[in-house]
Specification:
Blueprint (H helix, E strand, L loop, with lengths): L2 H35 L5 H16 L4 H5 L3 H27 L3 H8 L1 H14 L5 H18 L8 H24 L4 H23 L8 H26 L4 H8 L2 H13 L5 H17 L1 H10 L1
């Protein structure tokens, strides 16, 4: 093997790491864009428009793979998209009423910890020791976030948790669909279906504004291009150069970025119990992916 070839793989892995780190930043800053947009948008109208237009935008680079999909592949992709749409609808309603974006991002990140449990309950897949350790840590952290004044969880916390539960199921089914559907085509279909689901719910339950202000177009545009289309496109590209377990380690940083951005952007501050709760959830994320973390540390 030539010297240039031996260097190629480490350079690609380093490039993938930087791109995945960028993805976590884009995902976190997307929370800020969405919160700003919700000052004027009905929540379901916003998330529906955002995802539908982002999905249509991804059909440009994904046009050829889309034309080659079979009816069965379309059906599998759309099915996961409907579930993803329900998850994002709960998420945006939670964000609409949320007082702490950082807290919400940690609750939503529980989806990663819930994946093994949901997979075991529905498909009887085995659960590793690290998963069993992560679960009580995660739920203890969630309890600290919702039990500050007795058992009085805020509506936003419940919506974020339901979203996390649905996202965990989406992740499981998406993994099965992704094994036989090109990633870019799958992303384009799913984002579009999320938009259709949310817009349908919005049409039935929300009053749409008579006109859209420049501010609404600005935050919607940033959410579509930066927070959704660019984020998913870069993530798909970077994951093609890295192993899923390695990518997963970097992706757990997202709620940390979100908390930092929320503090800088909106001046959010957390009580000590909230900080401890978020720390426990983050610890659960690391423990849940401990095998991948250990491999990443050895490689580093």
């Amino acid at each position: 093997m030539s010297h240039s070839t031996s260097l190629h793989k480490p350079l690609n892995l380093f490039k993938a790491d930087l791109l995945l780190l960028l993805v976590t930043v884009l995902a976190a800053i997307s929370w800020m864009f969405s919160k700003e947009a919700l000052a004027e948008f009905p929540p379901l109208l916003f998330i529906g428009t955002r995802f539908l237009l982002a999905g249509l935008l991804l059909t440009i680079p994904g046009f050829k793979p889309l034309t080659r999909l079979t009816k069965k592949q379309w059906k599998a992709s759309a099915g996961v998209g409907v579930l993803f749409g329900a998850a994002m609808s709960f998420w945006i309603i939670g964000l609409f009423s949320a007082k702490h974006l950082g807290e919400g991002s940690f609750i939503t990140s529980l989806s990663v910890v819930l994946v093994p449990l949901v997979s075991w309950l529905l498909f009887r897949d085995s659960i590793s020791r690290s998963n069993w350790i992560a679960l009580p840590l995660a739920f203890t952290g969630l309890g600290l976030l919702s039990l500050q004044h007795g058992f009085q969880p805020e509506p936003s916390q419940l919506f974020f948790f339901i979203s996390a539960l649905l996202l965990s199921l989406t992740f499981i089914l998406n993994g099965r669909a992704a094994s036989h559907v090109p990633a870019l085509a799958l992303s384009a279909i799913q984002l579009s279906i999320v938009g259709i689901v949310a817009l349908s719910l919005s049409a039935a339950t929300e009053t749409w504004p008579d006109h859209w202000t420049g501010n609404m177009w600005w935050w919607l545009g940033l959410s579509i291009t930066v927070g959704t289309a660019a984020r998913f496109f870069i993530q798909t590209y970077a994951q093609g150069m890295s192993s899923p377990s390695h990518a997963a380690v970097i992706m757990i940083i997202e709620p940390v970025w979100t908390s930092l951005f929320a503090a800088a952007w909106f001046g959010e501050r957390m009580e000590p119990s909230q900080l401890f709760g978020c720390s426990l959830i983050f610890t659960a994320l690391v423990v849940n992916r401990w095998n991948a973390v250990r491999k990443w540390l050895k490689r580093s």
